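Quick question, first post here. What does this chain look like in 3D?
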Amino acid sequence: MTTQPTPARQIHFLFMLAAAAVLVLGTSRIALDGLKNSRSPFLLRLRLISNKGVVRLPVNVSDEDVIEEGCNVFDGKWVWDNESYPLYTEESCGFLVKQVTCRRNGRPDDMYRNWRWQPSGCRLPRLNALKLLEVLRDKRLMFVGDSIQRGMFDSMVCLLQSVIPEGKKSLHRVPPRKIFTAEEYNATIEYFWAPFIVESNSDNALNHTVKKRLVRLDSIAKHGTQWDGVNVLVFESYVWWMYKPLINATYGYPYNVQEYNVTTAYRMAMETWANWIETAINPLRQQVFFMSMSPTHLWSWEWKGEKDGNCFNESQPIQGPYWGTGSSLELMGIARDVLGRLKIDVTLLNITQLSEYRKDGHTSVYGERRGKLLTKEQRSDPKNFADCIHWCLPGVPDTWNEILYAHILQNYRLKPHAPSPAPL
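> Answer (accepted):
Ran it through. Tokens below.
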């Protein structure tokens, strides 16, 4: 005899069935929302199982990740934003060096960390660390230049390291390089010390203080061997050229040392670099960027009329039009001219004007001098000891990297990417 279920049991069964359906639908909705959301780690980590094994999908670069068409991202103003900036802190990034940790070194104010660059009529994409790491998977990103470029490297490391688990990231110094490794992505962020880009007697990354600087204007091969095959190269060279109006250099015969006008020598060095770019770079596999000059703020009479001041004690950006005498339009014009004649596409990141406004962002007396923090006596003499060249971190170089990020993702978006095999 078959026992019929009671109405109560039937209702209970239907309730359990409905609950299971809701659970399945909810899970599916979360997955679909993850697919729609370009910033979702779910999308970035998504893998497909096929009969050939595991396949990694291309990164979905959305409109939010790139600079709008027709937008001049270098024209704008700094706006106060203490809700979304800074993008990291000195405490959250253990890879920062003493030269840039201004707050830890005693700087009393911290407002320099909370200014956001706002382009006129458009927006600057916010850096998505997970997405950039996916784009850089199995690749190398290298910053080449002087200590200004090293600050940009330090900034990029801090922007990315927070999303990488402990034990899966490391920083090694192999002079003239510093190498940050993201193990799970098989990606490296690197820095290469080359203050003149071409070879010089100041190429020792640990001891580059020399009595008389000497630049080899036609020599770059030794450096080039370290740059070969790097997927993303970011070059910068300016401050070291501005030490004096004349510079000792060789061209052709290595022992024929002559004094060159800095602008002449800079053009010759840039043309040597350009020749290397055209012979060594594969535009299908490599991207090249060139940073415009990082401005200095050595004389406060330029922005407020004080005779003996500098960047010391400055806590606000300059408002309105401003261009300091420390930024050479002639050298910038040479860089533009050389880049404009290249057959290989090199993107100029013109960060000079936006950085000109940031007289408040320098390390001032809260950094290092020849590898040591300033003494109490030196800090009391900012006229002679304030560093108005280097930048505090977090700070201005983070914005440079946000601009670089948008260009890297834009270039990735423009190229076709097929699903690629990935380890199980």
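Residues 7-36 form the longest helix (30 residues).
Confidence is low (pLDDT under 50) at residues 30-51.
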